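Please, structure for the following, as tokens.
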Amino acid sequence: MAALVGDDDGEKNQGNGHDDESMCCTTRTNLSRQHEEYFDHVLSQGRLEEAMEAFDMAFFSHFDRIVSMYQEQPQLLDPILEGFVGRLASIMMDRVSSMKYDADDMLKVVYVSKFLWKLASVRGYKTILRFMPCEVYCVEPVFHLSQVVTEGAWKSSKDNSYEEVAEVSTWECEYVCLMWSSQLALVPFKFDIIDSSMNAGQVYEIAPLAQTLIDVCKDQLKSASATRNMAAVCLGRLLTRPDMTKALMDFATWCRDVLRDVSENSSSDSRDRYRVLSFLLPGIILTWSTLFKIGRVQDEGIHALATEFIPHGMRVFESEGAKSNPLLRKLCIKMTQRAVLLCVTDGKDAWLADEGTRDTVEMSIDALITALDDQDTIVRWSGAKGVGRVSSKLPSSFVNQVIDWILEQMHSVLATENSWHGGCLALAELTRRDLIPRSKVSEIIPVVEKGLEFEIRRGYTSVGANVRDAAAYVCWALARTQSKEEMRGAVLKLAPILMTTACYDREVNCRRAAAAAFQESVGRLGEFPHGIDILTIADYFTVSLRKAAYIDVAPQVAAFPGYHVYFARHLLEKKLRHWEKSVRELAAQALASLVHIDVDYHCIESVPRLIQSCPSTVLDERHGAVAALACVIPQIYRIKNRKDWIDVRVQKQLADIIPTLVNAGLTKGVGGETMRGALCRLIASLSQTQIQMNDDQIICLYDMCRENLSHPSEDIQLEASVALSSFLDRHIPRDCLDEDRVLTDLIHNLRPDLHFGARRGSAMAFGKFPPRLIKQYQSDILNALIPTVHLEEQIAVRDVETRVNAIQSLPHVLSVMDTSDALAWLGNVFDALLAALDDYSTDNRGDIGSWCRDAAVRAATHIFENHPPKNYDPSTLDKARHIAYKTARVSIERISKVRQTAGSCLKQSAERYGDELQLQRIYDTIKSTKDADFQEGKAVAQVVQAISPSHSQLSKEIVSGLVYSIGGLDAALQEMTASSLVNFVNNCDEETAVYCGEIILDLWETNLKNTRLSVPSILTVDHLLSNSPLMYHDDIIVRTVSLIQNATTGTGDVGKLCSAAALLGTIVGNDTGGGTTPDAPAIRVLVSLMGKKYPKVRKMAAEQLYTAMLMWDEETASASGILFDNAQTILMDTAWDGPAAVVRPARERLAASLGFSLQ
């Protein structure tokens, strides 16, 4: 409720109340200890002075971040304000007390002022001013400082040694100077005494010191920054001094001239006029608003100016420029309300006898009420507060007229949501001030009821949330000001409507506002039905989540007498016709959750009304009715649990709903897309409740299910598969439709030559198929599903969604089969899952094969649960073990979501069936691992420990997963996986280390032309040889060089060639030259890469060879026939990424220097 969180001005609380003082002494321990130590360190260790000397913006940024953390609870900063603000102010005074204002001192003042500005922006300037020095000796330096900072002449002074001084932002300093000046303007001495620039014998109408500050403030009124607001405050305090009457009149004259220029459109420069309208006018209006707030009623000059400037404000409010400037309109309303308060606040109603003043007051009230219909919220809010404040000073008869005026405006045929919002805010402000007479309460209650349900459709959205929020504010205010006797008749009306809004409103702020109003009413009035019990269920927090409010909170509240019918009617009349689809569907569930409270009511009232709304031509009403029936009917059937659960006539109407919609064409087009899901749910509900249907209706429902199964949307396909399952279980077989036709249709749709939607839907449908039909046609179903899991040979017909749906359907089919039959089929099913676990297909969406791998892991786990491996024959058990091993591989691959799924399933299978699946070794390493460790990739360090020569198949799968991850784009995962593998090889025995290296090379050799694993294999071998003793195993090195030569022959993959060059550089660099013969294969292959047609590859190979040669022993290499210096010179002097004509002879010379020929 917006009205409950602001102060009376709708502005930020500036901390000038008594509450802040009490906070200050009770929240000392609530300031973060770390931040408290930071502030103490800044003040005690001289850190602030050091930062000031260096103009350290990083230090200020750190301070800014810390202070900003207390934006929501700024009072927690109070304990440090006195010391911090006092220290900052004293630093400023030390720098400007001499009033020399050189660049060096001014830079430090600007820097310190940033800290004061930040504190003021968070805590409020009024609180900060309590700790600023306000002695007389500060007045003149600070006033002059305001002038110097604003003019900026110090930036271009001759003694300025800073090159970037002109770029320094000073608006924070201007703000702080004006803030401080506004406090010093209240000194209880005449400026004639303070101003040292005044000549003793000269008479001044206005002290030069005061005139200086006035000129500065007038100049700042044109600013677009926060300095404009502070300039208005400063002028308001300065010009209301008793000795500043002349200055006040001069300022009024200047303002009249500006307003006259604007109203007469005398400005020739449109840009200047725009600046006047956008910046200066708000500054002037804000200044007068401040003056009228601070000014005393007894001051005749202020009183006269208030009467004079009300028409000026109204002309500005109605001007063309103000129509596009909501801030200006708001300030005009604020100035008007504060001016009229000066006219009526004399305590004796003497103004009633003054016709001119009376006319001014009436004009002002008319303007305030007009503002209630403004297009901007801030203007309406200001107008509402103005109505409340002014009305509190009017006679009761006048207040009644104001109330009637507001109600008339709200009930007008031209009333908009703005009129209602402004009117509710005004009524709330009047109520909060206890200005509503008892006779008017009965007139306001119907307005509040309508306001709590106010919503107007606008295209594909609606307006009215602000009205409902404001109406809840009215209820809150009524509870606080009206007595039990006055509200006795309204309680029974307000209670259900408030709780309806609290539970069913779309917007969280409206639900919370209504809950707060209900809580206030229960506490103050005490006669709300079951109020205390309801408060324990529905409060500010429990209604925050929309779904929880609809499904959990509302049914509990509706169970109390007096609420259920109102809730149900609201859902039927409002929410089931809401413009937003998700709200309608949630409302349908909410209505179903109310059925158990009074099932007969819903049979007699809800269901017939919903049936009547189903054929509606309005899409929202039609969809809401169908969705609600789909939810309500099963609830009624479950509760009554008998054949005559609902009237036979109503059953016939229910059975005919979908055929009627189909015949009327209301299931096609854009509206039909919205209806599809609801229609599928209705089919499922009708089938579950055993409603009798004729053959035509059966065929219609079946066709609807088939049509929706082929829909591109996965959500609609899921709804259709559930509906088809319920439909088949209830209505098949029939003369018009038998099982063979249904099965034939579904199997036919799995053909690869059909469109993707039909294939996906059919594969999904078997996952929801009725057990009775699965047992009857199990062989046909499995023979259709199993081939669908395999990757299609033709690329054009490949569809991963179909494969995923087929994989997910297999566990369901097997789970309802007899154990013997299921075990007989497991071998074929496991073959399909093994193929799915090796699915690494990709498209523009990325690694879509991961969807199949994820689904296969889940499917295998479910199959293991339903059919434990101890019952498998040897062949099937061997396949199950392979699935488990591949699951271990998937648990350390690239995609985090798939890793988490596979890791969780692997742990579960290893724990339950470790002996049968030979997973005991890996279970010992991962049993303490959490699912999050698999997701983050941390579990790879444990999984890799399972590599062992005695578990060859498991080890190969783990290595495959490691290699795949090392070749990924995730640098963190790549580093984590590589380091885990290297650590394992370095810490295991030599046999295991060599075995690990060999299976990596085996994997590489098997996948030389496979892009997915060839480059990752090169990277993995490079990591191992660089960081493990495998570099010194000659067999591994010889085989590695041979594989590199085979992998780089005839390939155009630049990435593979560069990776191969890096690996060769590692091998060559680790040979000190002693074993390097003139025909060393690694060097020959590396030099051969320098002859590739790709400049990047040639350059990479040359760099790797040169780097490797730096690690050779020169004498040993020379003894082997290598011209060491000559080879290095050729490598350095040749542009290897240059033209081939340059590279070719250089490569030949290099080969000769290395002791071999390229021929």
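Confidence is low (pLDDT under 50) at residues 2-29, 1072-1079. Residues 270-294 form the longest helix (25 residues).
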